[in-house]
């Protein structure tokens, strides 16, 4: 395993941060509902995420956190409401006040701007780390293979795996596979990164490697929505913390304030258990 120093993303220091309230809104989620049959999973979610913000979502299993991310990334269609990324309506086009489903090509175009990292790494087992990373840029963006490979090697260096470029997933630890998955998402140069419990499938001793990559990615200015149970990450890195339960936003605000002094009884109960 690489040393902790080499595991850090190697990026220049971010410029002096603009106060969060003054930044442009990148993601707007307005009264979003999602049904699976008669099961009402999301019940009127409203949320905004600013450019460069790290928005952390916590909550018990079944609260709708992962479903919300999948709706943002068009892996699920919403049942009602609207989601905008940089003022572009996600999944639909609006004509004279009526919504029309986007074409497959239109959906693919929107997905290119949104990277997603899952609980499971979903790497192609028969392809090396670098081959996994160049797949989308060469197939979706039609980048020349040489250019995509050069970028992939840079990204592997950023996540501390420069010397693992030709390793297959079976030759990598879980933490290393997840870092390859992060590099793969970054290869598409997204303006928004979604993380769906990226450390939940890892052995405890490997969690820190992945969180270090995410911390440095946040420091570089990437806009991130992170579903996680890592309360320390939320406290240290998050700009906002949202607690969801039963498909609704129960409480949202400054992570340090919510963790130290949750206002809602359900938030108090949840944090009392996980802490």
Protein architecture, described:
This protein is an alpha/beta fold and about 280 residues long. It has 10 helices and 12 strands. Strands 8-9-10-3-11-12 form a 6-stranded mixed beta sheet, with helices on both faces. Strands 2-1-4-5 form a 4-stranded antiparallel beta sheet, with helices on one face. The chain starts with a helix and ends with a helix.
Bin the helical content: 25-40%
Q: Rg from C-alpha positions? A: 19 Å
Structural class: alpha/beta
SS field, number of helical segments: 10
**How much strand?**
25-35%
> What is the spatial order of strands in the main beta sheet?
8-9-10-3-11-12
Q: Identify low-pLDDT runs.
A: 1-16
List the helices and strands in order.
HEEEHEEEEHEHHHEHEHEEHH
Mean pLDDT over the residues: 91
Counted beta strands: 12
Tell me the overall shape: globular
> How far do the termini sit from each other?
29 Å
Largest sheet: 6 strands, mixed
Describe how the helices and strands are arranged.
Blueprint: H1 4-7, E1 25-36, E2 39-50, E3 54-58, H2 65-72, E4 80-85, E5 88-89, E6 92-95, E7 98-101, H3 104-111, E8 114-117, H4 129-139, H5 145-158, H6 174-186, E9 192-196, H7 204-219, E10 223-227, H8 231-237, E11 240-245, E12 248-253, H9 255-260, H10 265-274
Parallel strand pairs: 3-10, 3-11, 8-9, 9-10
Antiparallel strand pairs: 1-2, 1-4, 4-5, 6-7, 11-12
